[in-house]
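Before a colleague's protein record goes any further, I have to sign it off. What it holds is a sequence and that sequence's fold in token form. Would you go through it and say whether the fold makes sense for this chain? The record follows directly below this note.
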Amino acid sequence: MYLIKEMPLSERPRERLLEVGAKNMTDHELIAIVLRTGYKDVSVIDLAKKIQYEYGGIKKIMEMSIDELASIKGIGEAKAIILVAAIELGKRALSKFSDSKIITSPNDIFELLRHDMGYLKQEVLVAVYLDTKGHLIEKREIFIGGLNQSLVHPREVFKYAAKCSAFQIVLAHNHPSGDPEPSFQDIEMTKRMVEAGNIMQIPILDHLIITKDKSVSILSRMKIKSGR
């Protein structure tokens, strides 16, 4: 192992980024730039490789808390905070890029929310409020925790719909287990929300379950089971 200052200039991560561009950098080179320094006798490149290969790569790093990252030798709290902040900026940039799209399908909602919700370790219910043409007005976190129809009240969803003059709503929540199939509680809660939407004349277009790499429409599953 050798230190960054002992590397040829062409192999140093910052210099390589200037030469070849960020898109052509490896994951561990980009991590090294964020971390800036390694620790005694271990270069930041070797530290970045260790994080990438021993801890499962970028997707796993996205799931780790500050405390978990800080416990890795050579990271500590300060570097853990920088890593988490860099990842969050990336998520927000992707989300902002998607915000201007017209929502026309469940996949549009999945692409809008996957980076916010797909890696969470607890369930979160999000309401996506749309105008008459399907443009995003606002997305709002409604509830955190195990979703249960007795806990998630329609008023929490529809009070924000009234405030932002939404014409229609799509609900989404994540399954940290990675299994996107709706539970009985998911279906019952969806029925309750759809009924409330009909009364309020602000329809619930869909309710999606989102995981890291896929989503399932609860309304589609309900229609299949009812034979409609």
